C-alpha cells in the first residue's frame, strides 16, 4: 500500500505543475488587471505603467510564471494588489475562519445525518421514515440563501440567541474569551450549513441499510442469535458507510473552499468571498494561490478517500 | 483623503450577489412604494434631548465584503476605509475646516494661507494638535505623506499630475533627489508649519480636496522604521494606528469591526461618546438589523432597502446630495497617446448634434430613478453637482423626457423613418445601429439598460448592447482607458466628484478620462477660463455649451442616505460641519430605541 501511495503522490507532481500553468495563464487572460479602474483623471498614466512594470505585468507569461514559481518555493505567494498585504497574510486571516466553520458544519452534518439515515433505513416505510423523508425534501429543496436569511432573521434578530455578523466580538480579549466568542459566532451558520448538508448522507445511508438488511451475512448473523441492535451497529452500519467514506476525502477540499452565500449573509469573512472578490478585482496573486491550493487539496482528497475506503472495507486494497 | 481624487463610481458594487433584502416580511405593492428625495431626507437630525455621558454608538457599514482596514488617509483608495477613518480625522479626512462648498476657512486642525505672489502656500498646525500616543503633531508629519506618495518604493497609486506641480516633487519621484525641494519648514522639522512651493497656482487650490496638495498628516516617528513595501500591510497602519482627531482606534477585528474611544490628547471639545463601534453588515440583512434596532447609524445602505427602512418608526431618514454624478457619453473619436490629446475623428452618425440631443430627450431618467433607485438618484441637468451652489447652473434644463421634441430634432436633421425595418436611416439614407456598452454591477443594471434601449427605439434609433449583454467593470474600464476602441458608441459612466467642481480633468482636450473624445476650440477656451475672477461665469458657460453640444447627456445625481436611530443626538450631514461632526454626535439612552 505504501508503494502505491508514494506512486500516487509522485504522479501528482506533473498534475500540479499542469494545474498551476493553467491557473496562471487563465488568470492572466481575464480582461483588465489589478490597476484597471483605480485610475482617476488626475492619475499620471506613467505612474500606473511604472507600477505595472514593477509588478512584472508587462513580462511574457512564462517569465511571470517562472518568477511566481521561484517565489512559491521560497514560501512567498506574492503581494495582494488590492488588499496591499502579503498573500500569505490574507489567506491566513481567512483560512482559519473557513476551516473552523466548515469543520463545525461537517460535524453537525454527520451528527444529524447518521442517526437519521440509520433510523430511516432500519424502519423503512414507517412514520419515522416518512418524517425523515419530508425533512430531506426541505433540506434539499430550499435555496440555501433563503434558509440562511430566515435562520438569521429568527434566531439572530427576533430571538437574539446568536450574534448576527462577524467571526468574533470586538470586545473579546484573552484566549478563552476570544475562542468562546468565535465558537458562539459560528454556531448559527455552522448548524444551518450542517443541517442543509445532510441530504445525501441520509439518502445513501438509508438505501445502503435497506439493501444490507436482505443480505446473506445479516441473515447469518441473525440466525446465530445476534441481537438486532448489534446487527445494525456492528454488521450493517460498517458496510453501509462505504459510499460515505468514499466522499470523506473530498470533504477536505470543501473545508477550505468556503461558501460565498453563508459568508455574505453572516458577514463572515472566509475563503469563498475572498476568491470572488479577488476575481472581480483581478487580484491575480490571490486568485492563483487559492486555485492552486484547492487544486492540490483536491488531489490529496481523492487519495485520502481511497485510503479511507481501504481501511473501512478490507475487501478493497490499494494495489 | 476622500475626494482628493475622482473615483469611478460603482467600484465597490461589483460583488452584490443578491439584492434580496429581508424586508421584515411585509407585502408591498409598487404603487405605494415610498421613494426618497432630498426634500424628505433631513440634512440634520435635530434631537433636542440631552445625551448620556457614557454612550456607545453602533454603526453598520453595509456591504457584502470585509473592509480593507487601511487607517492612513495617504494610502487609502477605498471609500469604506475613508468612512472608517472619519471619527479619527473628520468626514473628509482633512485637517482643514471648510464652508458648505468646501472652501477652506480658518479654525480647523490646521490653517491654510496661500501666497499668490510667490505661488506658495503655508500650512500651519493647531498648537495643541497631538497624536494619540501623546507626541505632538509636527511639521515633518505634514511632509511625510508626500514622501509616501511620491517614493516609488511605497507603490502608491496616488501620485498624480496635480501633485507633480509641487516644485521638486517630480525629481524626488524619479529618484533624482533625496528630498523634496519645494517643501520647506519655516520653523524647522519639529515646528508646526510647512511651506509648499508650486510651479503654478490653480483656482481649485482654495478648496479642500483639490488634489494639488495633501491634507492629512502621518506620524513620522511611528512609521519611519517600517520598510516602504510593508507599510500598507503593517500593524501600525491596520491594527494600532495613531490619531490626531477626537477619537482613536481601540480595537480592530480585521475586515469586520472597529471600535473607537476618545483620544485623551485631543485638544478640542471633549467628544460625547464613550465608544463607537462600526460593524460590517450584509446588504441583505440591514433592513432586518435596523428593524431589530441593532444599529444607530447605517452607512451605504442599498436603495432597495429604502421602502422598508422608511417605515421604521425608530429611525429618522437623513441624507444629502452626494458629489457623484452619472452621464451618457458618446464615442466621437480616439485618444492619441503619443501626443496626449483627444481627436474627434470617428465616422459615426453621432457626430450629428441633433441625434445626440434627441437620444438625450428620449431617455426616461425620472422613471428609472423612481422605479429602480427609489428616488435615491435624481435626474441631473448638468455635470456639475448642485452642492456646488456657485458653480451649478440650475437654469440649464438638461434633457428631460420629450419624445416629440426628439422626433422633431431627428426629422429636421434628416434622419428619415424607414418603414421597412421601423427604424430611422442615417442622413445619407443608410440604416445604422449603435452599440451601447452598459456596465453590470447593479442588480437593476440590465433592466435600466433595456429601458433606455426601448426608449431609443421609440424615436427610431436602433441600439444594441455590446456583445448582447452587460459589460463587467474591468472590461469596461480597460476599454475606456485604452481610448482607441471603435466597438462602442455609447456608455454610461459615473464619477464621485472631488470637492473641486472643475471638470477639466474629465472633459479637457488632453485628458484620457474624456471617454467620448469630444474636443472643440470653443470648449477648450471655456475650460481654460475657469479661474477665480470669472469662475462662476465660466462654469455657467461650460454647462450651457455642454447642453448645446450634447456630447454627454447628464443622467443622474446620487443622494447619500443615512438612517439614524432616534436616540442619536448631534447628527448632521452638513458639509460645513465635516470637521466637527464626530465631536458633537451623542446618544440619549443606553440602548438603541
From TrEMBL, chain A:
It is found in: Cell membrane. PROSITE patterns: ABC_TM1 (PS50928). The keyword Cell membrane applies. It holds the Pfam family BPD_transp_1_N. The chain crosses the membrane at residues 9-27, 99-119, 131-155, 183-205, 241-266, 286-312. Residues 95-305 form the ABC transmembrane type-1 domain. GO terms for cellular component: plasma membrane. Its main location: membrane. GO terms for biological process: transmembrane transport. It is a multi-pass membrane protein. It comes from the Bacteria. Keywords: Cell membrane, Membrane, Transmembrane, Transmembrane helix, Transport. The keyword Membrane applies. Signal peptide: none annotated. Belongs to the binding-protein-dependent transport system permease family. NCBIfam families: Opp4B. This is ABC transporter permease. It comes from Periweissella fabalis.
Automatic annotation (TrEMBL), chain B:
One of its GO terms (molecular function) is peptide transmembrane transporter activity. Residues 113-501 form the Solute-binding protein family domain. Keywords: Signal. Gene3D superfamilies: Dipeptide-binding Protein, Domain 3, Periplasmic binding protein-like II. InterPro entries: Peptide/Ni-bd, SBP_5, SBP_5_dom. The keyword Oxidoreductase does not apply. GO terms for cellular component: ATP-binding cassette (ABC) transporter complex; periplasmic space. Pfam families: SBP_bac_5. Residues 1-23 form the signal peptide. This is Oligopeptide ABC transporter substrate-binding protein. It comes from Periweissella fabalis.
